[in-house]
Design goal:
The chain has about 375 residues and is of the alpha/beta class. It is about 40% helix and about 15% strand. Helix 1 packs across helix 3 and helix 10 crosses helix 11. The radius of gyration is 24 Å and the shape is globular.
């Protein structure tokens, strides 16, 4: 029989399965007050500590108490994510990271499409008039100098996500596009390929030129020639990758490997190879860039450069929220340019060059 004099055991939130601010502080090796500063986007936290707290929050799936934050006077900022990227895979990763961090940073996220090189400045002016506090600008908008200059001139905060070249007046989250392309090209050469084709990305995006430069420099460093027929223009779209692959494989001496500037175009290269009854990777190695969902859903799965798109979006939202909250407190932050790591992910689409019989395998490409 139970002792009725024993008081009932108190169950705290941690015991009930819900992580607390103390759990986050222990994992991040900091104080609960520091965790509170990070969740409230206060600027007085070192970048390394802020990232440790954000990593702990994500690992524990900690949800800050919105009511408590409201009582503490944390005002909710409104930020806009503008997109004009034709890759659905890229956009999916971008949205996943942005929406996740917007909830954690307690900001209201507005997602809006605008037509590149036509109405972006008009859209921005309308959103600013509606009360938007800051902008997330992924590619290709992150490379629009006129738009970035306009925002800087009117004092509106913007974060570039994945620019080829950061703007002096705005913060940015990016990877080393040149080195990533260089490393992938060196990997392909290391497999034994000497004739390597390359599909360039959209010419309006600075990253496209940097990826091309990385490819060309890696080929040159290995003493390999790149003829005009080995480099084809693409637009980061599946269709442009398909057309580029047809032109590459129609060369009198076609490549044994093709490196496309994003996964959508690389997937199109694989499709052309299948249509011509070429075995990937025995007859043709194919490599991509980004590691979006399509890279692991086609067959064979793509060897690619993993650009941490979702993580870049999370860091951009957190950085923008921090800058906006600091601005409300009279602290104007200097632009911060954060370079994240990339990874070369090896899957099933690349191998040493085999015995290629393309002359027998050509066919229609409609």
């Amino acid at each position: 029989m139970a002792d009725k004099s024993t008081p009932p055991r108190k169950i705290n939130r941690r015991q009930s399965g819900q992580p607390t601010i103390n759990d986050v502080a222990r994992l991040a090796n900091c104080s609960p007050m520091t965790v509170s500063r990070v969740t409230n986007n206060e600027p007085s936290v070192r970048e390394e500590t802020r990232q440790a707290v954000l990593d702990a929050i994500e690992q524990l799936n900690y949800k800050p108490n919105r009511a408590a934050r409201s009582l503490a006077g944390a005002a909710q900022n409104r930020i806009a994510l503008l997109y004009s990227n034709p890759s659905a895979s890229y956009l999916s990763e971008l949205l996943m990271g942005s929406l996740d961090q917007a909830a954690r940073s307690d900001v209201h996220l507005v997602v809006e499409q605008c037509e590149f090189d036509k109405d972006e400045e008009k859209v921005v002016r309308r959103l600013v008039e509606s009360g938007i506090d800051g902008f997330l600008l992924p590619s290709p908008l992150c490379d629009e100098t006129a738009l970035l200059d306009m925002l800087a001139k009117q004092g509106t905060r913007a974060i570039q996500v994945g620019p080829g070249r950061p703007h002096a007046d705005h913060s940015a989250v990016l990877i080393d596009e040149y080195q990533a392309a260089y490393d992938m090209t060196a990997h392909i050469i290391g497999l034994g390929h000497k004739r390597v084709g390359f599909v360039i990305g959209n010419p309006h995006q600075t990253a496209s030129g940097q990826r091309l430069s990385g490819f060309l420099d890696a080929m040159k460093a290995s003493g390999l020639e790149v003829s005009d027929g080995m480099v084809m223009q693409g637009l980061f779209t599946y269709r442009s990758g398909y057309d580029a692959a047809v032109r590459l494989l129609d060369q009198p001496d076609p490549p044994t490997a093709i490196f496309a500037s994003n996964d959508d175009m690389a997937a199109a290269v694989v499709a052309v190879a299948h249509r011509r009854h070429l075995d990937v990777p025995v007859d043709l190695s194919v490599c991509g860039f980004d590691d979006t969902a399509i890279a692991s859903t086609i067959w064979p799965e793509l060897t690619t450069i993993r650009q941490p798109i979702a993580d870049m979006a999370r860091r951009a939202v957190d950085l923008l929220a921090t800058e906006l909250r600091g601005g409300r407190n009279g602290k104007v932050a200097k632009p911060t340019h954060i370079t994240l790591d990339y990874t070369l992910v090896r899957r099933q689409s690349d191998a040493a060059p085999g015995l290629v019989r393309r002359a027998m395998k050509r066919g229609p490409d409609n």
